[in-house]
Amino acid sequence: MARVTAPTRAAAYPTGFWVLWWGTLINRLGEFVVPLLGFYLTAHAHLGVTQVSVILAMLGLGRFVSEGLSGPLTDRRGPAFTMIVALTGGAVMILALSFAQGFWWTAAGVLGFSLLSALYKPAASTAIAELTQGAQRTRAYNLLYWAINVGAATAPLLGGWLAGRSLRLLFWLDAATMAAFALLLTLLYPRAPRAAPQGDARTRRLLPRDALLWQFCLFSLLFGLTYQSYKVLAVVFAQQGFSAAQYGQVLAVNGALVVLLGLPLGHLIARSGHPRWQALGAALLGAGFLGHALAHTLWAHMLAVAVWTVGEIIAYGISKTIISELGPPAQRGTYIGLVGSMAGLATLLAPLLGGALLQSLGAGRMWVVIAGLALLAALLLLALEGRVQTRLARAPGTATG
């Protein structure tokens, strides 16, 4: 029995993974600024609704651009270098943002912060892929996902308490946790010499000519447009007469379920590593958002959130594993970054799409259209399943079995 459970023990993962895990937890526990940015801009900077919306959109724009660039940088200089640049640059921009005055300087600061800090995600995903293989890779992604969500569930509560004492303190503490993570990586993350780029120019393109990659990018965009539409839920709640506290209770279901179910579901999925799990996750995401179209009570909305949260958990870890093995190892970061940039584009577009649909169709039909995007993503993945399995079977350290 010990042999079966051994891969889940701490000692089974390399030191570099635990440096990433602990650094991520520290950083996410101190991620105060982004969750409370809208409140800060409204209550402290006294900006209007339109100005705040534009500034918040800069987060998605920066992520869209930066994640696409992070991949090639990671492939050339290594994940540690890219993560340290992202965290150090993000910390500097957070500090600068605390002194920004007026709409234009604030918008520029938020965009600069997003452009630098978003370099981190593809580099971290590439680092996991380099440190692990097989079923352990899927478990590692889910362990990191769990740490991210523990921080995401805790930081807004702690940040709200700290904001009552000093809003500027949030910026300084956020920057401090980013700097601490960068220092941790500098001192403890193992370095390995990067191999010289191999292959002809076609294998080193910034935008690879790989139809399967771009089809995965389309899936990521469709999935992201559905998932990021949860931000429109606040507007729908206000229209249906719910309070802000009730909205917070509904969203708390998401964080609680990720923390409770993230690890057991992730380990279950890792046993097979079958690409169909990702399609199931997308289908459940769509079903959950479709549930909001039928929900008129608080409990019905909570149930809908529970369904799409399970879909989110299922899709997350296996999607990272698949994309990390889809391309050649020398371009792993590029593949991860391009797919990640689609999530950034979805972050930018989803509130705009949701708002337009809400005005033209009403809440019920809006949720039907949004759910349809996720179900379309699930059908796309099922159509690609055979090609994905063939590609993964050729990949070193494949998770499929």
From TrEMBL:
One of its GO terms (molecular function) is transmembrane transporter activity. InterPro entries: MFS, MFS_dom, MFS_trans_sf, MFS_Transporters. The chain crosses the membrane at residues 37-59, 80-97, 103-122, 143-163, 169-190, 211-230, 250-270, 277-295, 301-323, 335-358, 364-384. Keywords: Cell membrane, Membrane, Transmembrane, Transmembrane helix, Transport. Gene3D superfamilies: MFS general substrate transporter like domains. It is found in: Cell membrane. It is a multi-pass membrane protein. Pfam families: MFS_1. PROSITE patterns: MFS (PS50850). Residues 16-389 form the Major facilitator superfamily (MFS) profile domain. The keyword Cell membrane applies. The keyword Transport applies. One of its GO terms (cellular component) is plasma membrane. This is Major facilitator superfamily protein. It comes from Deinococcus grandis.
